[in-house]
């Protein structure tokens, strides 16, 4: 009996450590709904709708190594990895580091904004700690599996993505969480949202299902890759190849307009507004270095 009581106390203790991360959007209920960038007369409330950065990109990487293997930082086998969720304004311009009071990036890039503002490197507790403070070890585990940095710890990349891009998406403004805002709530909520949208696009499986698998002996055409993704998403994502002749596939961006909030609203997949940097033929989708990958459970 005593042990049951103790167990009960322990369970409630663990429970008490979970904090909710959702914004306060009660006032949005009953307002007209509309996709971002599609009707600026209707869409005005920046907590209810994505007003700033309404063209939203879900970006994924295909890297063959991490440069941080010695720290156990490996890529997820059978999956692309997360780059982030990038808000672009409806006119194609984009902001960065939009709220310097929420600057958690230890290595700001760029370190000076086009308007001359210098971004001070962050030296406080890591965003990893923010996630832990909200009791979200599940989210942390997922991010450590799929959101992988190159040559530096994952949490630096996550912090960079939030501070450079997350602060430019209106539905993550601190005001949207009032009056019960708990510090860093929107950071954790942003990370959850990035994961949610990433999960909409299992790029590795979509390509593999169309016969396009990583190979160090066979190349693909751009049309093969584009057609495979179009057949499952109904849109043409941006295909990024970074070598000079555009023959090494490394990144994909899926474009959207969003109805409601980024957190819970509907993402409508759209064609890329920017041309692919991949050549038309001879594209390498390289196999990863075997020691740079780890098996994962989806
Ligand atoms: C924008 O919304 C307003 C109000 O709901 C509506 O009257 C108008 O037709 C819409 N415009 C477009 C282009 O959808
Ligand atoms: C430059 O941009 C930053 C970030 O958006 C902003 O905080 C700052 O006020 C701007 N500075 C000037 C001089 O416009
Ligand atoms: C495939 O080629 C890439 C690029 O040269 C290399 O990094 C990777 O280790 C190779 N993978 C295998 C399994 O040989």
From TrEMBL:
Classification via InterPro entries = Ribonuclease_T2_eukaryotic (IPR033697), RNase_T2-like (IPR001568), RNase_T2-like_sf (IPR036430), RNase_T2_His_AS_2 (IPR033130)
Q: Which Pfam families match?
A: Ribonuclease_T2 (PF00445)
Decide whether keyword Disulfide bond is in the record: yes
**UniProt keyword annotations, A-Z:** Disulfide bond, Signal
State the superkingdom: Eukaryota
Q: What is its EC number?
A: 4.6.1.19
Q: Which residues form a coiled coil?
A: none
CDD domains hit by this protein = RNase_T2_euk
Gene Ontology biological-process entries: RNA catabolic process
Catalytic residues at 83, 161, 165
Which GO molecular-function terms appear in the entry?
ribonuclease T2 activity; RNA binding
- Span of the secretion signal? 1-16
**Which cellular component appears as one GO term in the record?**
extracellular region
* Keyword Signal found: yes
The similarity comment for this entry is: Belongs to the RNase T2 family.
Protein name listed in UniProt: ribonuclease T2
**Source taxonomy:** Eukaryota, Fungi, Dikarya, Basidiomycota, Agaricomycotina
